Automatic annotation (TrEMBL):
Pfam families found in the cross-reference section: Gcw_chp
Residues spanning the signal sequence: 1-21
Entry keyword annotation includes Signal: yes
InterPro entries in the cross-refs: CHP02001 (IPR010239)
Keyword Signal set for record: yes
Protein name stated in the entry: TorF family putative porin
Keywords: Signal
Source species: Zhongshania borealis
C-alpha cells in the first residue's frame, strides 16, 4: 500500500471511529434527495434517468466526516463516497479542506482504475469563500488520469452561477461548463447546465431536484 492510500485508510478509520463513538458535542445530520438526472460537473451521468441520493455526516469543532450514496450513473452503477474534512473561517474568508474517496460497488473492469475499492479513486478538495464568491479546487490524487477540476461560483439572492472546468494531463479531455441554479425554497431547486467549449457542444441539461433533511 503506497503512502497516499495509507493516509486515506487512516482518515477513514478515524472517521469511522468518530461516527461510532461521537462525543456528546458532535452533531449528526442527514438528508435524502431525488433529482431528474445525475448532473456531475456538467455531464448527465444517468443518461436522463432520475437519481436518488442520501448522506449522513458527523461534525464537531470544525471537523466532519460522513458518507454520501447515490443510485449511480449509467456506466458505473451505484456510487458510495466517503469524506472527511475541516471547515473554518479566517476573518471574512471561509476555508474548507477535505478528502473524498469514490467507490463504485460492482463497477465494470477498467472503470477509473477499478474504482470499486477504497483508495482507488480519490480527491483532495479545497473550498474558499468570500461573501457571495466561491472558488473550489479538486485535485485528483488516486485513480483516473491526473487532473484538476475548478469551480468559480457567485450567489445572489436565490440564484447561483457556477463556471466549472478541468486542467488535465490529457489536453483532449479538458472542458468547461456553466451552470445557473434557482432555489425555489430550502428543498426545491432548478439547474440549467451548458457545456461552453467546442469539443463538448451537448444540449443544455435541465435538472429539478428535491432534498429533505432527516431528523436524527
Amino acid at each position: 500500500m503506497n503512502k497516499m492510500k495509507t493516509l486515506l485508510a487512516a482518515g477513514v478509520a478515524a472517521a469511522s471511529m468518530t461516527m461510532v463513538a461521537a462525543p456528546a458535542s458532535a452533531e449528526v445530520s442527514a438528508s435524502a434527495s431525488v433529482a431528474s438526472m445525475y448532473l456531475w460537473r456538467g455531464f448527465d451521468l444517468s443518461d436522463g434517468s432520475p437519481a436518488v441520493s442520501g448522506d449522513i455526516t458527523v461534525s464537531g469543532a470544525g471537523f466532519y466526516a460522513g458518507v454520501w450514496g447515490s443510485s449511480g450513473d449509467d456506466t458505473a452503477g451505484q456510487e458510495v463516497d466517503y469524506y472527511a474534512g475541516y471547515a473554518t473561517e479566517v476573518g471574512a474568508l471561509s476555508v474548507d479542506l477535505s478528502v473524498w474517496n469514490y467507490v463504485y460497488p460492482g463497477a465494470s473492469a477498467g472503470f477509473v482504475d477499478n474504482g470499486d475499492t477504497y483508495g482507488d479513486l480519490s480527491e483532495i478538495i479545497l473550498g474558499l469563500g468570500l461573501g457571495p464568491v466561491s472558488l473550489t479546487i479538486y485535485d485528483n490524487i488516486a485513480g483516473a488520469n491526473g487532473y484538476f477540476y475548478y469551480t468559480l461560483g457567485y450567489d445572489v439572492a436565490q440564484f447561483s452561477f457556477t463556471l466549472g472546468g478541468t486542467d488535465s494531463d490529457d489536453e483532449d479531455s479538458n472542458y468547461a461548463h456553466f451552470d445557473v441554479s434557482y432555489a425555489y425554497n430550502d428543498n426545491l431547486s432548478f439547474t440549467f447546465s451548458q457545456m461552453i467549449d467546442e469539443d463538448n457542444d451537448d444540449d443544455m441539461n435541465f435538472v429539478v431536484s428535491y432534498s429533505l433533511p432527516i431528523s436524527m
